[in-house]
Predict the structure.
Amino acid sequence: MSVWNYVVTAHKPTSVTHSCVGNFTSPQQLNLIVAKCTRIEIHLLTPQGLQPMVDVPIYGRIATLELFRPHNETQDSLFIATERYKFCVLQWDGEKSELLTRAMGDVSDRIGRPTDNGQIGIIDPDCRLIGLHLYDGLFKVIPFDNKGQLKEAFNIRLEELQVLDIKFLYGCVKPTIVVLYQDNKDARHVKTYEVALKDKDFVEGPWSQNNLDNGAGLLIPVPAPLGGVIIIGEETIVYCNANATFKAIPIKQSIIRAYGRVDPDGSRYLLGDNTGILHLLVLTHERERVTGLKIEYLGDTSIASSISYLDNGVVYVGSRFGDSQLVKLNLQADTNGSYVEVLERYVNLGPIVDFCVVDLDRQGQGQVVTCSGAFKDGSLRVVRNGIGINEQASVELQGIKGLWSLKSSFNDPYDMYLVVSFISETRFLAMNMEDELEETEIEGFDAQTQTLFCQNAISDLLIQVTANSVRLVSCTSRELVDQWNAPEGFSVNVASANVSQVLLATGGGHLVYLEIKDSKLVEVKHIQLEHEISCVDLNPIGDNPQYSSLAAVGMWTDISVRILSLPDLELIRKENLGGEIVPRSVLLCTLEGISYLLCAVGDGHLFSFLLSANTGELTDRKKVSLGTQPISLRTFSSKGTTHVFASSDRPTVIYSSNKKLLYSNVNLKEVNHMCPFNTAAIPDSLAIAKEGELSIGTIDDIQKLHIRTIPLNEQARRICHQEQSRTLAFCSFKHNQISIEESEIHYVRLLDHQTLSFCQLILLINMSMAAPSLAVHSRMITMFIIVWEQHMFYLRKTNLQR
Amino acid sequence: MWCEAVRLRERGELRARRFEAVARARRAASLALSNRKEFATPHHGAVNSVQVDLTEGRYLLSGASDGSAAIFDVQNATEYEAGFIAKHRSILLVDKQHENGHKFAVSMAIWYPVDTGLFVTASFDQYVKVWDTNSAQVVMDFKMPGKVYSAAMSPIATTHMLIATGSADVQVRLCDIASGAFTHTLSGHRDGIMSLEWSASSEWILMSGGCDGAIRFWDIRRAGCFCVLDQSRSQLGRRPPFLESTVEKSYSVQQRKGKSNKKPQTLHKSQIPGQGQIQQRLHPGLSTSQNRATAHYGAVTGLRTTTDGMYLLSSGSDSRLRLWDIDSGRNTLVNFEAMRLQTSKPLQLAVTEDPSLVFVPCMASIKAYNLWSGMTFQTLRGHYELVNCCYYSAQEQELFTGSNDRQILVWSPSTPDFTEMEDDDRRQKDFVADEDNWSD
């Protein structure tokens, strides 16, 4: 038998390479567009903050991202080029709310050497052409025609050998580029060229500037009417333009990596450097003449790879080395002298330099510990798959056959009682004043038999279904109000109820439907089906949360699930499941506004159907295997959203995301029964019956992956796990700036693998660590091995007592 | 240095391709005579040409003055001497004893670019022969009007299978393997043709260097040559100067102005006949002054394009190396430091793929020059007599050179680590000893 492997992305890319702001989705809406490696995220700016709109995958790594406004249009278009030399122009279709590809193509050349300093893609501010610098010595031009359509691309020879940056100048009669380049003597210059579209060549531009700062690496074109360009160096910032205006200011040595324009007239810019400091650059001007430059420190952010100024002092700082941030620039400095206030952080795992898999509970639910980030944003991240249940309390209880929670009154938001059913008795637990669970009695309930179902009902009643009877008990007096007895010779096998309806099945295929009317149980309908009934459900899925018009019934013998209408119990739809395994649990539920019928069979398979709440029509049948034992299904809610818990030998949480059913495993071994137990003391908790144990626990956020960050403030490079000593070891380093001289400090640290707290630090100074490798010694349990350049170290843990 | 590259790569700041390029460049910069690889040549005369096949990068073809051509496997050694010195013997030899062998010196031996099933030899016996590698038989021959100095096939051609040949005759002849006949003759040179090179970007463009000092560019689909390189024409003033009048004028003014500008601009065009379309309009009747332009004083002995197809290097009997911009056909005026070159023989130059270094046979040594600054980067000494040819294999970053001393030498990246690695082994042994102590 061949083994098939498949690869899925567990976590979408998170490292932000580009971002831009514009009116993309409508002329009135302001959008932030973020490029994350191979994905594009479009956000809408709302008074409440950033609201994600769409997240689209791009086939290829995004190399350039630019927004532009074509002639005679009110909305921006998006130009994307990928590292494999494909490009596209995207536009937003407001009617269908989807992206529209306006143009696409290939801009690769057969030969040519890819540029050293990355691809450059720029668009003329007057939208006459797109310029691309993809290969050394060539500048590719894609002209626009009068209607804004793209014409055939052509190459122009660019003699400059080492191009560092190219930008279009504003306010030029002909499209003009400014090129920052380095000559073969390592001196840096800028030069301008006009693009002559007709001749497909350059014309020498209006000005040039030789011998700039040796670290000059970034050009910022200044919009009209000021015009010109700002050249960012490592030690100076220079402004020059065609009128031979030349202004320069010295700056503290730093490498500016990203800039963002604040004002549309281009008088203020945000600059982010490689240590994560945000600066404000101000161009002082008198009318249309630039009189000077000013730079101010704003504060610390993540190391920025892109800066987008949104509105009202809110700035998006995209980062490749740390978490991207949404920051607010305040008018007043805080106590640390920082004007930056972080509003929101967006988790970024990249760059993942190394990782190890740690399986703590030996449940096959490993977690990944990654060395993420770089420089000051370095961190360890613990990525865990599945949903965790954190046990809060547990008692030893053998032989639990069922579990339900009850509220003390119908409108009480919290649960009060926990009904635990055993083979020949039923026990009641209640929260007392000290928030402890203690055994109690509900007089009206039958405690001497096994309970089949329990439920709060309308008008402050409680329903208990046992093999012989259905009991209605008042919440306040706890006394029996009404009772329905099973006919002589029949006992109730399965039952289900909601707040106003009860459906039960007795032997011989009898199905009885009761309704609660005026605190009385009224038998509304009784039918006999041709086979025995294995499970029933009437969870309301329609508009009325108190009354269901549909019931689901699972059958023995013909292995089918049937949808019956209520109250007349007429067959609407019969779906044969196939196979020989009897359905053991059915559930009608609504997740994210979509109704589903879930049906679990005895061998751990689960069928899901889309259910039309009005007609009872079943569509989109799907089958998944969750475990090997019978599954029982139950809904619960967490943070106001409904999810489904499937108890079996591999307990699973079923939830809906993006209108798709997702299955996430739970960090528990085997669960027999589960019911939500939302108490005031532990809100949103679950009561879980395991083998010989009843426990109460809280559940994580319902999502696929959970990421925990351990900030290091230094860059971790290698990590490894040793199970025997319960530790993780990692190597990291840090730049240490003492006065001018820069030195690196290298560390090896030990972490406890459960709590992830630091337990030991080994300092290694003055080692140039090229590529260390770290391994666990196979025989000696207290040892890590580090291979460091040409030396090999053994680390022995002596003072690590556990 | 390379630690930093590894770190940058780890952080994703350096793209994979760039990282590779950095590593290749570092290796190329550390070339030294290989102390692990040797070729045992069967040649009894000067080695005139060496080339590694373009498909696998595995088989080295050499041609020598004794009329022989040989093939070596550069990856798998025939035997090992002293345990680790790989000795490569020829796996195929065709010489005068062969029934169809060349009678006189083989001046050029080249691989068929598409696979290793064919190779082509050009000889002073006025023949160009096409050989079947597997059977070692001549499948086709072409008789030339004089000594053949040079033969070249386009590595990128998909629509033609032409061998361009240069001989003591003034014409470049194109031999078609498909039909076994001459398809074209290209006339223009006033003397024999010593070197030929196909363009790396267009399969129709051929470049030829003659003993008359001219380098001519031919488009083989058209008659005549379309460009003659002129050593005195530099990049300076290639672009039409910026027209002062177009600055700081509003659109409306400009549109009116636009018309009046047209005239001066067309004037510019006719003044720069170095340019693509314009040149083609000009030939075949290239202005006589241009037609007489020379690239070198004396003969052009070697031509080589860079792998990106942007630049052409030429060597001349005036002991000069020149770097030309192919697109504009202008001299870049890179001043390569003083050298002495052989004057009477075609030379085979080699360029690294970045292109940062050019290897030039300078008498008995090979000089590596920085392509952009023209500075001598390194002088490779090892041959005892004049060096004729060098070939740089981008795959392994190795340089192969052939000389009058009948040897083919291999220059490999001298990984600094060879000796250090031995040290490492020793060190590791020490640690092994430690480990044993510990585990007690």
Notes: The radius of gyration of chain A is 34 Å. Chain A is about 0% helix and 55% strand. The mean pLDDT of chain A is 87. The CA atoms of residues 253 and 739 of chain A lie 12 Å apart.
